[in-house]
Amino acid sequence: MFVASLLALAFAAIPSVLSQGDITDLVGTWSSGSKAVVTGQFANPANLTFNYPKTTGVSYAFSSDGFYEVARYRFNGNGAKPQCITGVLNWHHGTFQMLPNGSLVLTPFGDGYQQIQDPCAAETNFIENYNDTELYNSWQLFHDINDGPKLHLFNFDGSPVAPLFQVYSTPNMLPTEPLRNVTPTIDAANLLATNGAPGAGARSWSSAGFVSVVSGAVALGLSSLVL
């Protein structure tokens, strides 16, 4: 009798898998850890700022009509230089699609951005665009005996996202449309001249911008050889 009671308690403490079903199972607002990071109140896209949460974490929101929002606040350690801890705040939103195999694809509107703070870098605090399409290989929904619905997402490489707890049954989101204009730089020479000029302001480089500049330089070099 005593053993049976212990087993009952043990099984009750194990979260039960509810589903990996359709889009309705994902609808709501989810947050990790202390639930301090919550979509809809994290970012101010109009002026490229953030409302700093009290603690780090990640939050996702999904709507029944296929929109999403992601908010992340994290610190990255540096084993070689413990004093060089990098802080990252990241926000983006857009549309998502559930593939037949259960994977999720998040496609941004193009107005996402992130702030990176690195005390050991040449540029210690800067803002850059963030508009990566994200793939989640799989997901599972559990029912936690204490916290209710709990969402587990798995990245494209199979690594898990921190467990997410449902803070609202509805999506807490900013308007589901592009919220700022993002104009790509097309004049590489002018960009280099401006950023190299005395008194130029702080720079924000993205990998795409860097590739554009390098590609332009290579193209110019090849054309000079032909001529």
Description:
By secondary structure, the protein is of the alpha+beta class. The longest helix has 20 residues. The N terminus and C terminus are likely disordered. The chain has three helices and 13 strands, in the order αβββββββββββββαα.
Provide the descriptors you would attach to this structure in a database record.
alpha+beta, disordered N terminus, two-stranded antiparallel sheet, 227 residues, globular, single chain
SSE blueprint:
Elements: H1 2-13, E1 16-19, E2 28-32, E3 43-44, E4 49-50, E5 57-62, E6 67-76, E7 86-98, E8 104-108, E9 113-117, E10 125-129, E11 134-144, E12 148-155, E13 164-168, H2 188-196, H3 207-226
Antiparallel strand pairs: 1-11, 2-5, 2-13, 3-4, 5-6, 6-7, 7-8, 7-9, 8-11, 9-10, 11-12, 12-13
Brief synopsis:
This protein has helices spanning 2-13, 188-196, 207-226, and strands at 16-19, 28-32, 43-44, 49-50, 57-62, 67-76, 86-98, 104-108, 113-117, 125-129, 134-144, 148-155, 164-168. With 227 residues, it is of the alpha+beta class.
Strands side by side in the biggest sheet: 2-5-6-7-8-11-12-13
**What distance separates the N and C termini?**
92 Å
What letter string, H or E per element, gives the SSE order? HEEEEEEEEEEEEEHH
Tell me the number of helical segments per DSSP (H or I, 4 or more residues long): 3
Q: Residue-averaged pLDDT, rounded? A: 79
Q: Over the alpha carbons, how many angstroms does the gyration radius reach?
A: 22 Å
Helix/strand class: alpha+beta
Query: Fraction of residues in helices?
Result: 10-25%
How would a crystallographer describe the biggest sheet?
8 strands, antiparallel, barrel
- Strand fraction equals 35-45%
* Sequence stretches where pLDDT stays below 50 over 5 or more residues: 1-15, 185-227
